[in-house]
Known about the structure:
By secondary structure, this protein is an all-alpha fold.
Amino acid sequence: MEELPPFKPPRGVKPIKETRVLMSVIRSLTASETDEQRDREKANLEMQYRLCDQKLDELVLKHEEDLTLVMQIFGNISQCVNENRLRIRKIKESLIECKKVLGYRKERIRNLWRDRLEYKFILDMIAENKGS
């Protein structure tokens, strides 16, 4: 019988099986009345942990090439994401600087427009005085 490949559950969702196992361990440790029972439970858990660890090592060895490839791809993607974040940060800073410069220019244009109105008014008054 062929084993199914391991799968990762969606983020934030704990598999029910793991939750049940954890609750079972907690119940058995709290329900054990003597140190001997706790020690047996502890030995059992340690044995299961070693078996799990051994199975994990076997799976890692079996899929070493795939894991290496995935880690390399992840590293490349992570590097690209970090570089793009840096670029975005620089672009945001540049946009803020442009906004400031445009604000200064807008203020300068507004001042020049006011000066033009003032000078036009003065010129109109001079022209009116010459014409009278």
